[in-house]
Design goal:
The protein is of the alpha/beta class and 367 residues long. The protein has 16 helices and 12 strands. It has 2 domains: 8-78 and 90-151, Rossmann fold, CATH 3.40.50.10860; 160-305 and 311-354, NAD(P)-binding Rossmann-like Domain (Rossmann fold), CATH 3.40.50.720. α3 links the parallel β4 (56-59) and β5. The structure holds nicotinamide-adenine-dinucleotide. The site of nicotinamide-adenine-dinucleotide (NAD) has 23 residues, from α7 and α8.
Length: 367
């Protein structure tokens, strides 16, 4: 299902509820506090499966509409991500409007925590852009509805190893679909972005005998990871011309676009970055036509939300990893659905999410 948009002219008369209705958002909460300068929006897209969980993003939006659009889009994405990952979580997200470097402070975060608390657990927050685990500790002073806390506070700590493991098993399922077996031994794999997730992924791939190429903006990271894993460094100008089997975007979004698709020679795209397709509908279709198997990002990188979910249950890394391992089967299932129904893989992933939502909505209705 594609995200629907509303015409600019309609915005003027119906800027909020009409927009919520487009993708069936349940609730949107606007928060304002003049004393601290807090201006925030919490969007709860869907709570059929459980409380809406999703991070808080702090960003200097140019206007309120931009912030509202972002929070509605992101919260809807969380519903699908958790649904496909088999978690009992709904989709939600929060945005705080403003430059984190200029206005983020303890009072603002605690005031935000009080707003979250007032929702009584319908929304649980976590880290996102410009928010840190220290910020979560501060929010936690005012509410228990926060996840992604550091390990020394009983939290789940850094989610990246679980995310990277999910990417690795998803890549193996993709290899099985393309080459008939899931071994990555000898496969040539480009990992773009060797930060928290990318480095652990490189570790898994190297251990399995893949030939790993790495690219990053940080020279320092490149040196560390190249030395440690004997990976080959490639430049941004040449990496998409390489003769590779798999491209793993682990840096930023929108790297699967007109330009890169004209160059890419790989058979699989499977990585951790969010929103890899510059335009889901256009590039989700083109990628398949080019004979490249695209493993949908929100299925592949669900290890992060899986990790946070297990924090709510009393954290246990083994359980989180074991749940992340199921991403192998989910990836495989969506490829089969995509072939059977003749639809692009991103669409099959959305459909899997919708199927679980409607099945659980039905059982909720009979209780
Ligand atoms: P990170 O910030 O630790 O690492 C990102 C790396 O990408 C950095 O080393 C950075 O220098 C590099 N980078 C940034 N722009 C680049 C560019 N244009 N070209 C090449 N390299 C570039 O982030 P992370 O936690 O490893 O996450 C990686 C991606 O996965 C992000 O898109 C994130 O949203 C997504 N993700 C992460 C998790 C998680 O558990 N950390 C979960 C889900 C999704």
């Amino acid at each position: 299902m594609e995200v629907k948009d509303i015409k600019d002219t309609d915005f003027i008369k119906n800027p909020v509820i009409a927009q919520m209705a487009l993708n069936n958002h349940e609730q949107v909460v606007f928060c304002n506090d003049n004393a601290t300068g807090l201006k925030a929006i919490v969007a709860i897209h869907n709570t059929i499966l459980g409380p809406a969980l999703g991070g808080t993003r702090m960003w200097a939006y140019t206007n309120e509409m931009e912030a509202l659009n972002d929070v509605l889009r992101l919260s809807r994405g969380m519903t699908y991500k958790s649904s496909v990952a088999g978690l009992n979580l709904g989709g939600g997200k929060a945005v705080i409007m403003g430059d984190a470097k200029k206005i983020k402070n303890e009072a603002l975060l605690r005031r935000f925590g009080k707003f979250i608390d007032s929702l009584g657990g319908k929304y649980i927050t976590a880290e996102d852009v410009a928010m840190t685990s220290r910020d979560m500790e501060i929010i936690k002073m005012e509410t228990d509805y926060v996840s992604g806390l550091p390990e020394n506070m009983g939290g789940s700590g850094n989610p990246s190893p679980v995310t990277a493991y999910g990417v690795y098993v998803s890549m193996k399922a993709s290899a099985r679909e393309v080459w008939g077996n899931d071994s990555l031994n000898g496969k040539k794999i480009l990992v773009q972005g060797i930060g928290h997730v990318g480095e652990v992924l490189v570790d898994h791939l190297t251990k399995e005998g893949a030939k790993v190429y790495i690219n990053d903006l940080s020279e320092e990271r490149l040196k560390v990871v190249a030395d440690k894993y004997k990976a080959e460094v490639v430049s941004a100008t040449t990496m998409f011309d390489l003769d590779i089997d798999i491209y793993a975007p682990c840096a930023l979004g929108a790297t699967v676009n007109d330009e890169t698709l004209a160059q890419l020679k790989c058979k699989i795209i499977c990585g951790a970055a969010n929103n890899q397709l510059a335009n889901e509908v256009i590039h989700g279709e083109v990628v398949g036509k080019k004979g490249i198997l695209y493993a949908p990002d929100f299925v592949v990188n669900a290890g992060g939300i899986i990790n946070v979910f297990y924090e709510l249950e009393g954290y246990n890394r083994e359980r989180a990893l074991s749940h992340a391992e199921k991403i192998y089967d989910t990836t495989w299932d969506l490829f089969q659905m995509s072939k059977k129904e003749g639809i692009p893989t991103y669409m099959a992933a959305n459909k899997l999410g919708e199927q679980r939502l409607s099945a659980i909505a039905r059982i909720n209705a009979v209780m």
